[in-house]
Design goal:
Strands 3-4-5-9-8-7-6 form a seven-stranded antiparallel sheet. It has helices at 3-26, 43-51, 57-61, 74-77, 96-103, 105-113, 144-157, 201-209; strands spanning 83-84, 87-88, 90-95, 121-127, 133-139, 162-167, 170-175, 183-189, 192-198. The chain is of the alpha+beta class. It is built from eight helices and nine strands. Residues 22-61 have low confidence and may be disordered. The protein has one domain (3-27, 70-209).
Length: 212
Amino acid sequence: MSRRSILQALAASALAIVLGACGAAASPSASTAAVPSVAAPSTEASQAASSAAEPSSAAQSLAIPSFSLPSEAKDLEALLPDKLCGETATKASVSGASLGSSAGSEFLAGLAALGKSPTDVSFAFAFAASGCGAGIFRIAGVDQNALQSAMLTSVQKSGETYTQSSVGGKTVFVSDKASQSGKQYIYFHGDAVIFAAAPDDTKAAEILQALP
């Protein structure tokens, strides 16, 4: 397989990871659905509850488990804006080892063919409740022109068109398909693919101006 073909395969995997992460993060998960309400206890029940030494099993069952997002590439997280569309951004990141295992064998094989390993890969993304998002996907040392060419070839094969435009002072490629997060904006910086998601160009410009 030629270097160009390898990069195209990697680009397809990278694009799925990059754009999929933003949409998934911006969507509320099933686990955050409304918590069932509990009827107010009667006076007798309240008195009984106040005298109990231990909380009831029913009360214990209402506890909501906590969770934390991964933060394995803090250097990339630091490059992402703290605010997205006027809201505080939630950030997360994964190292190459974690990302490689989730991306599958094809992605790992492509890295190996380029003389790269999962340790050369890192990905950070930020999202807000509004659906606005941003992210950086990096393969350390990959040539920018080769990465850009491969990525754009991959999206064209998928039937999606990215049109070159200037937004927020950056030359970006804008998708012709809107997602739940709005429009997708991509540009290339060194060995990284940088993206933003926003409902319109005005809000996208604010995000893009805060990115490298």
